[in-house]
């Protein structure tokens, strides 16, 4: 759930990697982050950071118009950092 990345980063003395990805709407770019732990070998990704319902107004909450593409971008960016494991929450 929400707060997963921050909790794991704090417990494992990891770091935040700031990124920009697509939000739940294709026209929406958002600034967010993922975490790195285990000597930067493991990425921690929280889907809500890119595609959470809190990023949408009630009128925008339409599954035919929204997407989780931003989560895929987070995965790609984590892989670009050379991680060998990804944990998605």
What does this structure look like?
The protein is of the alpha+beta class and 89 residues long. 29% of the residues lie in helices and 28% in strands. It contains three helices and four strands.
Element layout with pairings:
Layout: H1 4-12, E1 15-22, E2 29-37, E3 42-45, H2 47-51, H3 69-80, E4 85-88
Structural class: alpha+beta
- Runs in which pLDDT lies below 50 for 5 or more consecutive residues are none
Instruction: Bin the strand percentage.
Output: 25-35%
Distinct helical segment count:
3
What's the β-strand tally? 4
Instruction: Profile the largest sheet.
Output: 4 strands, mixed
Oligomer: single chain
Radius of gyration: 13 Å
Question: How do the strands of the widest beta sheet line up side by side?
Answer: 1-2-3-4
Envelope shape: elongated
Helix content: 25-40%
Mean pLDDT: 96
Distance between the termini: 6 Å
**Order of SSEs, N→C?**
HEEEHHE
Brief sketch in words of this structure:
The protein has 89 residues and is of the alpha+beta class.
List keywords for this structure.
alpha+beta; 89 residues
């Amino acid at each position: 759930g929400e707060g997963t990345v921050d909790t794991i980063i704090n417990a494992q003395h990891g770091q935040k990697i700031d990124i920009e990805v697509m939000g739940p709407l294709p026209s929406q770019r958002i600034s967010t982050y993922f975490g790195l732990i285990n000597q930067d070998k493991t990425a921690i990704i929280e889907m809500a950071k890119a595609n959470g319902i809190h990023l949408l107004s009630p009128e925008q909450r339409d599954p035919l118009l929204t997407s989780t593409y931003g989560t895929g971008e987070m995965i790609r960016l984590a892989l670009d950092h050379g991680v060998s494991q990804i944990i998605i929450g």
